[in-house]
User: Fold these one by one.
Assistant:
Number 1:
Amino acid sequence: MWAAAHHGIRGSPRSRTRRGAFRATPPTDEAGLSYLEQVEATVKPYGGKWLANGEVSVVEGAWPGLVVLMEFPDRAAADRWYNSAEYQEILPLRANNAISDVVLIDSLPADYTVRGFAQQVRAAIQAAS
């Protein structure tokens, strides 16, 4: 996926919905619970909402912890939320007290196909050779 994005084979991401996924251990202390109690207020002004939050059923590989899936209207909104003073103020409550990963990804265009993606990757590999 990185190679595809690096070679610019994705469409214009600014116009598509942006999703954020978090993988985290459940909070077990006051700091983690405080983060959870405050985070929603930081998301709402940017149009963010939760799509999923909870335990996962791992069918392949390893996925320790919970998953949180969020959605924002676009890339700019997700970036503004993550970099906002309000979120940055509470971010250490999560980052310093939980094992977590955060990724942001654009939604796919309506005409996306996996076969088409494979063709784009092939073209990018050939262009880089």
Note: Residues 1-15 have pLDDT under 50 and may be disordered.
Number 2:
Amino acid sequence: MEHATPLPPDPDQRIRRAARWLIICSAFAFAGLFLAGAAASMLFEPWTLELAKQQFPAVVGLPMAALAALCLVVLLEIQAGNVELKAFGFEFKGAAGPIVMWVICFFAISAAIKMLWK
């Protein structure tokens, strides 16, 4: 009985997969640098601390929501392949699928922040 050897992945697919993982790693690095920069800024500039206290969801929450939405969409693409969306009589394929999915994720996370924030 002969075992079929798996075909090597298409070089284009390997590049896309590597680029997606690079986006995920870069997003986490940016989030860390953003939070470290914000903390340093709050230590040395008192007005930034007051701004962060008064408007934390807008100053920190929304940028992190954008990154979280990006990570969700990229991880979805890594796991399931191309994102295609059909809803309300519209069909989004190609580049429009991930963009619309990002917008939906961003709005959902933003709405959750608004609802849960006092």
Note: The longest helix spans residues 11-44.
Number 3:
Amino acid sequence: MPLLIWAGVLVIGAFVAHWGADKLSAPLKKVRRQWGLTAVAGGALVGIAAAGSEIGINTISAYRGVSDIGLGMMLGSNIVSVPLIVTTAYFVSRTESLGAETVRMTIVAVMDPLASLTG
């Protein structure tokens, strides 16, 4: 029974994360346009903002002498992030040879697990 509950929590969490990403993308586009940033610079800005919590946790764990927390945080986030970033960069760099629609659909399938489930 507890496994079924956690599976439900996972599914609900995935839907909430997808909803939150949709709600956050419009204001970020507006800020990017107001500041005159390119899409790459906007992506870097979002990346720095997303890494803020990791930087804070790593700094505090190093200050308190509990370096295992920082190491676990670094390994845990990079094990998932690096393959996704490399895959996305690969497909984006091949836009002309593969066709823009094929690349867009592939990136959505890689970056959004819900897209592959819903069709």
Note: The chain has a mean pLDDT of 74.
